[in-house]
Design goal:
By secondary structure, the chain is an alpha/beta fold. The protein contains 16 helices and 13 strands. The structure holds S-adenosylmethionine. The site of S-adenosylmethionine (SAM) has 17 residues, from strand 4 and helix 14. InterPro entries: CARME, SAM-dependent_MTases_sf.
């Protein structure tokens, strides 16, 4: 049977992926990819298409008791009648996120048309040069085409999420209709950022960013495991895990039971899309088509990235929600907490410290790696020396760590500074790097 792209999209938008378990409702590709002609039954299917991506096989450990329990718990929290229905309700946040991914193309095209419109201000003679030399209009048309290709990934993410969270297409459609009637716009930036996170975490191109941080963190954890007397796997929690690659690398070390935690639904639906992949690089996308700045060449801007470059470790568990509240019943449960580019996201830094202290066993370790880039409205903003003083006052002891975590930041104290990028695009003519602060402390 042959099926064309229009049919495919109808299937995706129609009932094929409409989840049936309503009761328990508890940041791109290349034009040569043959998405328009897909052959089912009698031939190969392009892995790029939403049906194929949704159908990535579910593998053993995702069905482990730990995974099953957490999913049941998640679906209960997601139920409409659970808690208060409002902007922080997980189901509403999920629906808003899926609204964002669904409207990816529309929101991007509005922006593209704005650029097209701005181009009309260029003089006739100037345009002639631009068209002859760089074919500028065609560049904008190329961007449009790649936006359509990115849309396929967004649709796959939505299909996968509907199934995973037990939400029907009808419920999402109604949510979108309601949002549009209220003239609420889908979030373009968060979708774009989530797609770019695939690069940082799961593409070959992200290796530089990962290599700034992971060797220090992984060797420190191996060292802790080496001296640990605990015979069973050490329980490691990584709050603010983004798309989770670090946790998967920790799980690959052996001897660790890894739990990720992430608040953002944009991150979570992207993670759910990738977590069961049993193939390497099954999908491709064009993460940089939505910005014209900092490109050495237009080819760089339009380039294709593939992901995931390794298969995820199926033992890793993601617990969705706010770090400060999601683990309330797990006091003293964890051997190690790893905060990677996380603590400066706090509204109240002291609450993160309290939660870390609560969740660690006595003798447990907290490993931090990240900058002190505070957000727009934190209740308290501390410099490194103040953090050291507060953390010591709380009863943590700073430990020595190895040279692969950088130089000592200041004499007489143990935290180290390690240059670490957080920019997604290694080819950009700009660099976004931090003197990440690294420390290990023990809960006394
Ligand atoms: C700067 S990002 C770093 C992500 C990832 N660790 C990395 O390095 O790529 C911080 C992450 O923390 C998440 N986050 C912020 N506040 C959180 C909270 N209270 N609980 C859990 N995650 C949170 C954000 O959604 C974001 O994904």
């Amino acid at each position: 049977m042959r099926i064309n792209l229009l049919h495919l999209l109808l299937l995706v938008n129609g009932n094929v992926f409409a989840a049936t378990n309503n009761d328990n409702a508890a940041s791109i590709v290349h034009r040569e990819d043959p998405v328009e002609t897909l052959t089912f039954d009698d031939g190969p299917v392009n892995i790029q298409d939403p049906i194929q991506m949704r159908a990535m096989p579910i593998i053993a450990d995702v069905n482990s008791p730990r995974h099953r329990q957490e999913r049941a718990h998640l679906l209960r929290r997601m139920a409409r009648n659970h808690g208060t229905w409002g902007s922080t309700h997980p189901r509403l946040r999920l629906l808003d996120t899926l609204f964002g991914f669904t409207k990816y193309k529309e929101r991007q095209i509005i922006e593209l048309n704005r650029w097209r419109n701005l181009y009309t201000n260029v003089g006739k003679k100037q345009k002639k040069v631009l068209e002859r030399v760089v074919n500028y209009k065609k560049k904008l048309d190329d961007v449009e085409e790649l936006i359509y290709e990115n849309l396929m990934i967004c649709k796959s993410i939505v299909s996968n999420a509907l199934q995973f969270y037990g939400v029907t297409q009808q419920e999402l459609d109604e949510h979108i209709k309601d949002a549009e009637e209220k003239e609420r716009q889908a979030d373009r930036i968060s979708v774009s950022q989530a797609l770019k996170h695939f690069v940082r975490d799961w593409a070959d191109e992200g290796a530089k960013e990962r290599n700034d941080a992971f060797p220090c963190i992984l060797s420190t954890l191996s060292g802790l495991k080496g001296v640990s007397k605990e015979p069973s796997p050490l329980k490691v929690l990584l709050p603010g895990s983004g798309l989770g690659r670090l946790g998967h690398e920790v799980a690959n070390l052996d001897g660790f039971e890894v739990t990720l935690n992430e608040w953002s639904m944009y991150m979570n639906v992207a993670y759910r899309f990738i977590e069961n992949s049993t193939l390497t690089n099954p999908f491709s996308f064009h993460p940089f088509v939505d910005g014209f700045s900092h490109h050495a060449t237009t080819t760089d801007m339009l380039r294709k990235v593939t992901a995931p470059n390794v298969t995820p470790n199926s033992k890793v568990l993601l617990v969705e929600g706010d770090f400060n509240t999601a683990f309330k019943d797990q006091a003293g449960h964890y051997d190690i907490i790893v905060t990677h580019f996380f603590i400066d996201t706090a509204r109240n830094l002291m609450s993160y410290f309290d939660t870390i202290q609560l969740l660690l066993k006595t003798g447990g370790k907290w490993l931090n790696f990240g900058p002190l880039l505070y957000g727009t409205a934190p209740f308290v903003q501390l410099s490194l020396d103040e953090i050291i003083a507060v953390v010591e006052e709380m009863g943590f002891a700073f430990e020595d760590i190895g040279d692969d975590c950088g130089e000592i930041t200041f004499d007489g104290k143990k935290p180290r500074s390690k240059e670490a990028e957080y920019g997604f695009n290694g080819k950009a003519l700009t660099k976004n790097a931090y003197a990440a602060q690294v420390w290990v402390v023990t809960k006394k």
